[in-house]
Amino acid sequence: MWGFQNNDFAKLLATSLFCVAIAVTLNASPAHALRAGSWSWPLAGAHTISRGYEAPSVFYGAGHRGIDLVAEEGAEVLAPADGVVHFVGTVVDRELISLDHGQFLSTFEPVTSTLTEGDRVTRGQVIGTLTTSTHCTCLHMGARQGKDYLSPLAMLASIPAAVLLPWD
After folding, report:
1. Cβ–Cβ < 8 Å for 152, 52
2. What percentage of the chain has pLDDT greater than the value 90?
3. Integer Cα distance of 81 and 85 in angstroms
4. Which residue, 47, 63, 111, 129, is most buried by CB atoms nearer than 10 A?
5. In this predicted structure, what is the pLDDT of residue 50?
6. Contact, 40 vs 124, CB < 8 A?
7. String of DSSP letters for 38-98
8. Enclosing H/E stretch for 142
9. How far is CA 108 from CA 52, 112, 129, 137, 140, in A?
10. pTM
């Protein structure tokens, strides 16, 4: 009907959908791709994600603007990259810290920190400790570029780049 042979259309459609799914999952854009994979994990040891990133359909809409990493209360939280402390304090009922990494901002909650705004941090430096949360026994990690939230998984170093392989 369309002039495609040997399921070429199905292959093309599957490849296109796969690329779109990756772009949506990573919230990829050329600006994000410049630094993708450059952050380290904010917790030592194994990394278990209890809840993933869920982009809101509209700016103020429902979603989960970050990932939740399973961790014990009192766990040391580490800077994922060099940066400057952007904010330390309480938002609603949770203590949090955010770091400015240039074009990206990382956030961590619930975290108690002795750092103050303007302090410089280096990758792997302890920036605080995980405190009690009513949300879960986890560390919530968020990432933003300007006002746009993105999945922190796109920034973490241990996520391998996706490679499309030939069909044959």
Report:
1. no
2. 41
3. 11
4. 111
5. 85
6. yes
7. -BPPSSSS---EEE--B--SSTTSS-B-SEEEE--TTPEEE-SSSEEEEEEEEETTEEEEE
8. strand 138-145
9. 15, 10, 10, 13, 6
10. 0.71
pLDDT tens, residue by residue, 49-71: 887 777 777 767 666 788 989 99
Query: What is the percentage of the chain residues whose pLDDT exceeds 70?
Result: 70
Q: Is the dihedral of CA 87, 90, 93, 95 positive or negative?
A: positive
Could you tell me if 140 and 14 are in contact, meaning their C-beta atoms sit under 8 angstroms apart?
A: no
Number of residues in the chain:
168
pLDDT in tens, 4-28: 455 544 444 444 433 333 344 444 3
Tell me which residue has tokens 């990432």.
143
> Are residues 164 and 15 in contact, defined by beta-carbon separation less than 8 angstroms?
yes
* Dihedral in degrees, nearest 10, Cα atoms 32, 64, 44, 46: -100
3-state SS class at 112? strand
What's the rounded Cα separation, in Å, for the pair 154 and 39? Answer: 9
Burial label, 42 (beta-carbon count in 10 A; 0-12, 13-18, 19+) = buried
